[in-house]
Task: inverse folding
């Protein structure tokens, strides 16, 4: 999928653990882990908003479009 989730990068920049983020946004560790590892097929705007608020970032800091041949 050409949408790359950079949640792990933003969490590292903010020095926030998955447990801490889970508590702040009200999502389970399992659901955050699915999102963090790029296995999620969709994300609700309300979830993205909560993550951006907790990490003090913009949606573009979390989601990135990368064409398949440029994929990391």
Result:
């Amino acid at each position: 999928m050409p949408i790359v989730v950079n949640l792990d990068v933003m969490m590292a920049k903010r020095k926030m653990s998955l447990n801490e983020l889970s508590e702040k946004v009200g999502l389970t560790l399992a659901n955050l882990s699915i999102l963090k590892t790029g296995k999620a097929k969709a994300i609700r705007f309300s979830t993205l908003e909560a993550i951006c608020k907790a990490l003090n970032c913009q949606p573009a800091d979390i989601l990135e479009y990368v064409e398949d041949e440029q994929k990391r």
User: Anything to note?
Assistant: The first strand starts at residue 3 and ends at 5. The mean pLDDT is 92. The CA atoms of residues 6 and 62 lie 5 Å apart.
